[in-house]
Amino acid sequence: MQKILVTGGAGFIGSNFVHHLVRSTDYTVTVVDKLTYAASRESLAGLPEDRVQLVVGDIADASLMDDLVSKTDAVVHYAAESHNDNSLNDPSPFIQTNIIGTYTILEAVRKHEKRLHHVSTDEVYGDLELDDPERFTENTPYNPSSPYSSSKAASDLLVRAWARSFGVQVTLSNCSNNYGPWQHIEKFIPRQITNLIDGVKPKLYGAGLNVRDWIHADDHSSAVQTILENGRIGETYLIGADGEKNNLETVQLILRLMGHDENDFEHVTDRAGHDMRYAIDSTKLREELGWKPEFQDFEAGMANTVQWYQEHQDWWRPKKAEIEAAYAAQGQ
Ligand code: NAD
Ligand code: DAU
Predict the structure, then answer these.
(1) CB neighbours of 43 closer than 8 A, spacing ≥ 6?
(2) How do residues 72-90 score in pLDDT, each as one tens digit?
(3) 120 CA distance to ligand 2 middle (Å)
(4) What is the similarity comment for this entry (predicted)?
(5) Domain presence at residue 198
(6) Residue 2 CB: number of other CB atoms within 10 A?
(7) Ligand 1 site, CB within 6 A
(8) Is residue 157 part of a domain?
(9) Residues pairing with 105 in the sheet
(10) pTM of the complete model beyond 0.90
(11) What total number of domains does the chain contain?
(12) Ligand 1 pocket test: which of 16, 35, 36 has the largest number of ligand atoms within 8 Å of its C-beta?
């Protein structure tokens, strides 16, 4: 395996993975990315031109994908519409990219007999009660709640069907909530950090008791590389770093790290159908493939993330007013 095609490689997690591959392997990487509002060319800046190439295009473009897949050894598929709140306002791009786009990639890897790793989310399993002693495992039944998570669930099921019916060489991973540099400011953590930089109070949906299982994006990348290189074909691996925190705790940590009173936030209108809790049991990945996360200290990881947004205002500031206006229109 020398040539890797990374879909969605100009997004938050895909670009992290491209940097990770360049640091830790001698692979050459082609990124295919439509450069939607969520992408950023800057996230790929400085990478060696003889190792990384960006092709601007749509994963639902069958002839483009046929051509790119024919020239690669393996595909790592990150491209997606990724934000739950957007999927509640307009599901249509989620159906088009997450379902039709994945189908298009599957047909190309089937035709050219190429290896595929499909990147997905723990949200396909629905949510857990706060006091449920169980966490998600590879055997948890699918039960997605939102247009986003149901479109990702649909894409996972297509991948599994192409593996079983056509013998396509796939692995799948379902990861919990990522944080770190280059995350779009529509998402929870960067939204609150950039609000505070702007002198605006953090906004908590509902009571703030919903739990997310945080993992640093660097750890997601090392896990995907491990599965790509050593995972068993046809298998699913859950990726998580034992990072459960409720949203109130996370906002209070950000407030403290940025020198504010930890009660200086406001409650806003809750998300429709808001999942209560996600929690990952990553035993299979750890025991079978020997993976473990590097970022075990959430407070230290968050301090680095706060500093990154403080130092990269040129990157996020042009997007901030529009994002906040859209949230404000919904009482959020
Ligand atoms: P993101 O929104 O930051 O990036 C998505 C990228 O995909 C963007 O660069 C965008 O331009 C590109 N893209 C969108 N539609 C496309 C299309 N039709 N053709 C080509 N490119 C297209 O998303 P992210 O947070 O980096 O998530 C990446 C993947 O990881 C997604 O599949 C998501 O479901 C999965 N995931 C995300 C998280 C998380 O916490 N963010 C956790 C688990 C899994
Ligand atoms: O679990 C993995 C998923 O994590 C990924 O599949 C998604 O692509 C990714 O966006 C993320 O989904 P969430 O919906 O959990 O992330 P988000 O950052 O939108 O919200 C995190 C939590 O914070 C959630 O409970 C909603 C809440 N929230 C969000 C925003 C934007 C707030 O309380 N206030 C906010 O302003």
Answers:
(1) 10, 11, 12, 15, 182
(2) 999 999 999 999 999 999 9
(3) 15
(4) Belongs to the NAD(P)-dependent epimerase/dehydratase family. dTDP-glucose dehydratase subfamily.
(5) no
(6) 10
(7) 7-8, 10-14, 32-36, 38-39, 58-60, 78-82, 97, 101, 119, 121, 152, 175, 177-178, 184
(8) yes
(9) none
(10) yes
(11) 1
(12) 36
